[in-house]
Amino acid sequence: MSRRCFSLTESRNWCYRSAFARSGLRSALTDLGDGTVVHCWVPKARSPAKPDLLLIHGLGANALWQWADSLPHLAPHFNLFVPDLLFFGDSFTSRPDRSDSFQARCLMRVMEAHLVRRLSLVGLSYGGFVAYSMAAQSMEEGAAVAVERVVICSAAVCIEERDIKEGMLSVSDLEEAVRILVPQTPARLRELMGYTLTRHPPLGLIPSCLLSDFIDAMCADYIEEKRDLVRAIPRNRKISEIPKITQPTLIIWGEHDHIFPVELGHRLKRHIGDTAHLVVIKDTGHAFNMEKSKEYHKLLKTFLIDLKPPPASSSLDSESEKCTTEKRTSDNGSDPKPTASTNAPSQA
Hints:
Elements: H1 8-22, E1 25-31, E2 36-43, E3 52-56, H2 63-67, H3 71-74, E4 79-83, E5 92-93, H4 100-113, E6 118-124, H5 126-138, E7 146-153, H6 161-165, H7 174-181, H8 186-196, H9 208-219, H10 223-232, E8 249-254, H11 263-272, E9 276-281, H12 288-291, H13 293-305, H14 315-323, E10 325-330, E11 333-338
Parallel strand pairs: 3-4, 3-6, 6-7, 7-8, 8-9
Antiparallel strand pairs: 1-2, 2-4, 2-5, 10-11
């Protein structure tokens, strides 16, 4: 797909690169030697007085777009490492593995290459799947990198392959979700924005030329590879086979998430157990990091800087979980299942 002579998206991308540089980060490429190259923003001068923090983006744009607003809140307190996942930015692989566990293994190797031995993680949406897998891998015997604290943001780690077929999400056709999550037309991008944002301008009024510009700049490369990342999320996924991480974990969800219903956040909390805390942010959806930025960054500060648990979930959260669940019989017994009331496709 041809690039425009002038691109608002590329101009904003340049501004974000400048913001990362002003925040003390530099661009670095790590060749893992197996056909895989990972781009990561790393500290220009790593401070031994600061802990290390890895920020993992979700689907959509590259790391610049998803983490630029967080830099002023986090850079003063941490040595930040901000990678582009495979098939985003300048990261790529010739290997066929499209699983989140492979993404996690690659990031573990990148951190090892940068002499990081202990770190905490924040993962947004699809990045939350990768963060969870990194936390699990760090518990394995002989792991070179230890994960200390984990933040999972709207990542349905405990989704199962059958959930899509049984109507937990609004689409039973994974390929329809794939077409929305890797948009190639302005109409698909509008659809994705409608699912992700709870407060947005009338989508029909956004000029198609602006949306096409974004698609050309951010979504035109590695199209099939990105689609395969989505397809790999639910494939053969069963809760019984998902490891339970033991690190202190903060799970953050938007109350009106139309990508992954909030019950999946409660399910993840139940799976991990007492070391996990779930916070549901009111009056927002999947993109709560944008729509409720102040609350989001306050939660990160409390958990990652002050090393305190987040505020307890309100009674409304518990009642919401009760009202949206019903019993279903599973192969392993009784498992709660929310009613199919969300109007959104699946997203990782």
